[in-house]
Design a protein that fits this description.
The complex is a heterodimer.
Chain A: H1 3-13, E1 18-19, E2 26-28, H2 33-41, E3 49-57, E4 61-70, E5 75-84, E6 89-91, H3 100-111, E7 114-116
Parallel strand pairs in A: 2-5, 6-7
Antiparallel strand pairs in A: 1-2, 3-4, 4-5
Chain B: E1 17-21, E2 33-39, E3 42-49, H1 57-61, H2 70-74, H3 81-96, H4 102-130, H5 136-156, E4 165-166, E5 169-170, H6 178-201, H7 204-210, H8 218-223, H9 229-233, H10 240-243, H11 264-288, E6 307-315, E7 318-326, E8 334-338, H12 340-346, H13 348-351, H14 357-367, H15 371-375
Antiparallel strand pairs in B: 1-2, 2-3, 4-5, 6-7, 7-8
Helix pairs in contact in B: 3-4, 4-5, 4-11, 4-14, 5-6, 6-11, 11-14
The chains are: A alpha/beta, B alpha+beta.
Chain lengths: ~150, ~375
């Protein structure tokens, strides 16, 4: 079984899901993430390991990247969610995956994405009184060394 | 802070007690701050605070070229720098669809496995030191690690942060007589591994401190995304070197040691066995190393095509992953480091609930975390 097969199976149940051309990632609408996570976590595939969660700042929107793993069918799949920068809110997956507790806190700390229904959403790497979200492209304080020009 | 009255007996008044362990504590292996709530000697709650070593590596990567970021990866897991170098260059090579010569692949395997042995030696030594086997196992482990570091010193001229891997190959070819030295080291290390087992494995004091303590169940290990020896100690036979082979790992014969219970003793035992398997891999790699070019003259600037790549390798502490997003320019658009210790530490506050304070140290030592890659 490959990622494209999983994509077809998800598409049967959630028709709004599309596949990204360049990266072959499965792009999911933000409001359906809970349903899809529940579907993936079910006994059929048992994608019960959320291996990695991160985000990419694309300036007008922020892309969340979920990497799931299934020990049962030995497959890794990548899910993406695009959130517009003016409404950075998404449901937390802590009910399905315990590892997301810290992953989501990290994404909140560095990108400012709010995870709804997270048990303890606070900064994890930066001090709690830190201002701004450092991994955003428009973050400018404190001054960083200038980018190398080649 | 809210104070909970926790007395079982109506006539006795006692309240919850809070102690700060760290950020400066010898057994927290760096700057980790544990906020422990105690009922007598039993831990009722633990809050883990991290971030004291945050150096914003991911932000720095966005302002550096691909070659310039290699030395930064040394400072992630500074006990196994070679493995970090390796994962990063593999990810960049995958992004660029670059082929590497066979000799370079073999050299990378030998180096990575030697570093794994060195890292496990530190894990075992400091763990034994933490639970009270004062100085002896630690000094023995450091004595053996010193020999590996001498080998690395001869290969690349550095002792802790190596900066040895290059995009497309390695920095230097192996020196002429080094294979004899590595062979001698393997022979020497095998007998020393037996020595450690005689000292620790069935030692009655060691057993009392480690057996049935900090049990991590299979389902919790998967749900918390635990990787590496900690996952295998919980009974899941999963090793990237075997299940999704990279480099030339599919050419070597070796086993994946696993245990059943997932307690502190199992995590120690898996590491000892893994150390022996690593020696086995090095032996086969030394015997089968082909001739040919290994050193590349690295370009100063690489411009990978626009795209995204996620690559993970089996590090001594678990699966290290690099998620690199390229926009076709000389610097990464975004670089995410998926550090194994980060997830391994996340489970900690659940493991210590209901154990005695002394066992907190024992469990933390057995998880073998390293703050450099947690805080990044």
């Amino acid at each position: 079984m490959r990622q494209s097969d999983i994509f077809e199976l998800i598409k049967l149940k959630f028709p709004q899901v599309i596949q990204d051309e360049l990266t072959k990632a499965i792009v999911v609408p933000g409001d359906q993430i809970l349903g899809i996570a529940g579907f993936l976590n079910s006994a059929e595939f048992s994608f019960n390991n959320l291996h990695c969660l991160t985000a990419i700042d694309r300036k007008e929107n922020i892309e969340l990247v979920y990497i799931f793993y299934s020990f049962k069918i030995r497959l890794q799949i990548t899910l993406k969610v695009c959130l517009p920068v003016d409404s950075l809110e998404i449901e937390s997956l802590t009910n399905f995956y315990r590892s997301t507790d810290w992953f989501e806190r990290e994404v909140y700390d560095l990108f400012g994405v709010k995870f709804l229904n997270h048990p303890n959403l606070c900064r994890i790497l930066n001090p709690s009184d830190w201002k701004g979200f450092p991994l955003r492209k428009d973050y400018s304080y404190p001054d960083f060394i200038k980018k190398a020009q080649y | 802070m809210e104070v909970n009255v926790v007395s079982q007996n109506k006539d006795l008044y006692s309240e919850e007690f809070s102690i700060n362990m760290g950020p400066q504590h010898p057994s927290t292996h760096g700057v980790l701050y544990l906020d422990l709530r105690l009922n007598g000697e039993v831990v009722t709650d633990c809050v883990t605070h991290i971030g004291y070593l945050h150096r914003s590596m991911e932000k720095i990567a966005e302002n550096r070229t691909y070659t310039q970021f290699i030395p930064f990866t040394d400072r992630l897991d500074y006990v196994a720098s070679m493995n970090n170098n390796l994962c990063y260059v593999l990810a960049v090579e995958k992004l660029m669809n670059m082929e590497v010569s066979d000799r370079a692949k073999y050299i990378r395997v030998i180096i990575a496995e030697l570093n794994r042995v060195a890292s496990h030696l530190i894990a075992i030594g400091t763990f034994a030191q933490d639970i009270g086997a004062f100085a002896t196992p630690l000094f023995y482990c450091f004595r053996e690690r010193e020999k590996i570091i001498d080998i690395f010193d001869e290969i690349c001229g550095n002792r802790l942060t190596y900066n040895y891997m290059r995009i497309g190959g390695v920095q230097f070819d192996l020196p002429k007589d080094i294979d004899e030295r590595i062979k001698y080291f393997i022979k020497y290390m095998r007998s020393k591994a037996d020595d450690y087992e005689e000292l620790l494995t069935n030692n009655i004091i060691f057993l009392a401190r480690t057996k049935n303590i900090g049990i991590l169940s299979k389902s919790a290990a998967v749900s918390y995304s635990i990787t590496g020896p900690n996952l295998r100690a919980s009974g899941i036979k999963w090793d990237l070197r075997k299940d999704e082979p990279y480099l030339v790992y599919d050419k070597f014969q070796f086993d994946i040691p696993t245990c059943e219970n997932g307690d502190v003793w199992d995590r120690y035992k898996v590491r000892i066995e893994e150390l022996r398997q690593s020696l086995k891999i090095i032996e086969q790699a030394i015997a089968g190393i082909p001739e040919g070019p290994a050193v590349v003259k690295p370009g100063r600037i690489y411009k990978p095509p626009a795209g995204e790549v996620y690559l993970r390798t089996e590090n001594p502490r678990g699966e290290l992953g690099f998620y690199i997003v390229s926009d076709g320019s000389t610097c990464p658009y975004r670089l995410k480091i998926r550090a194994p210790s980060f997830s391994n530490l996340a489970v900690f506050s659940e493991l210590v609930k209901g154990v005695k304070v002394a066992d907190v140290v024992s469990i933390l030592g057995s998880l073998d975390i390293l703050m450099g890659e947690i805080d990044r």
